[in-house]
Write a structure and sequence with these properties.
The protein has 109 residues and is mostly helical. The chain has a domain of 60 residues: DNA polymerase, domain 1 (Orthogonal Bundle), CATH 1.10.150.80. Helix 1 packs across helix 2 and helix 3 runs antiparallel to helix 6.
Amino acid sequence: MIGKKVIDTDLITTAEVKKVLEELSKHYELTYEQNLVLDHVTKFSKIDEGSVNKLVEELAETLKKTQAVKIADIMPEDMADLRLLFAKERGTYKKEDLEKILETVNKHR
């Protein structure tokens, strides 16, 4: 790791991680850790990559990208699940805003 530095970082969803690792596995043999990650995202990814990108774009219009990615990964089913995601966030969200977020998530489910 000497001489290497991070140039840029970007948040990606579990569906995107799955796609990247599947593409990588076609050309190279995955390491043990990469195989574990691929197994995990295969089990827990709830929607495909095309739908998740659209969902994150729609959610990013009203939320921060970090929140949009978190919601897209977990795909909350009701208001209680959604409130748990925002429990540590500063500020409050109106019930109408949370219902709009749930509608958007349900549209892409």
